[in-house]
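Data availability (excerpt). The following record was deposited with the supplementary files.
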Amino acid sequence: MATTASPAALTTKGAASENSSFYYDYDYLESVVVLVCTKGEVQSFARIFLPIFYSLIFVLGLGGNLLLLVVLLRCVPHRRMAEVYLLNLAISNLLFVVTLPFWGISVAWHWVFGSLLCKVVSTLYTINFYSGIFFIGCMSLDKYLEIVHAQPVHRLRTRAKSLLLAALVWAVSLAISVPDMVFVQVHEHPKGVWSCYPDFGGHGTTWKLFLRFQQNLLGFLLPLLAMTFFYTRIGCVLVRLRPQGQARALRMAVALVVAFFTFWFPYNLTLFLHSLLDLQVFGDCQVSRRLDYTMQVTESLAFLHCCFTPVLYAFSSHRFRQYLKALLATMLGQRQTFSPAPVSLSRGSESSSRLTAQEDMTTLNELTQGQAEGSQNLEDIGSP
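Predicted structure:
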């Protein structure tokens, strides 16, 4: 969740979906060691650091994802499976970054937006926090089916099934946000200072531990394992077939996994350590303060995924770059010189297919088909 804090209340919990333990720790301290462990320095740091960083993420995320959305909606006439997931990822990231100004204002001052927006913003945050990660996993799955199980029309890669999977992602993300709909509310403490956070009553510790471990599992561990498996199998196929552009495709696969790990591992590790602290496995007041500082920094780093991940996926595509050039040429009033041949959706031209595959990891199925035609049956590509 966005690490929003009330400037006057040491016991402020987090808003949104209880993803951040910055406030869980305050809740824990409130009931256990509040008279011993004070965190005025942590809150002072948060008032300066978080609004600045949230503003940066908002600007970068809004600009990058809007551009991606415009290109996909305006310039891509027939979106393939990967582009359907990329479109949904852009929408998810846009809705996510829109919540950040609310948390930035809240941490710098207090929650001034009322009870309804408290629930709406918190729910939007959670839905798009998870859906963004899930859609990255969907794109990895699609690439796995496209290359490892390469066939002209794979039964698992129909447009209808990709739309069904996208709908399932939104439904699961919505289900995960149910605690926000039910428990998040506005609180006044002290008088005149409002905060937006979930109130679980007497089960706060149980809920916060459950939600942290849920995020560690669903928001990091399972997607990371899935991506590692998918891209490892893709790498094995590319090494075996040795197509043109193999080295570039392998580098891109490694870059996607490394980027996901770099953004999310520090935050999830800090989240896990906070859970151990709440369970009194280790730590003291000083450790708690250091984890709070670390949480703010690593969570902000994780939020950067919504700025750079779509760009990484999109600009790895030669097809997308061609459409972007055409859009920019149109916007600048220049004569459009873009030729659709290199990015044609038709599989009829082998040379076009090979060019696209050499430049674009998202069309490696075409590359695989073109390289395999003269040496082996396509069905052999999909064999385990």
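Summary of structural features: Residues 21-320 form a domain with the Rhopdopsin 7-helix transmembrane proteins fold (CATH 1.20.1070.10).
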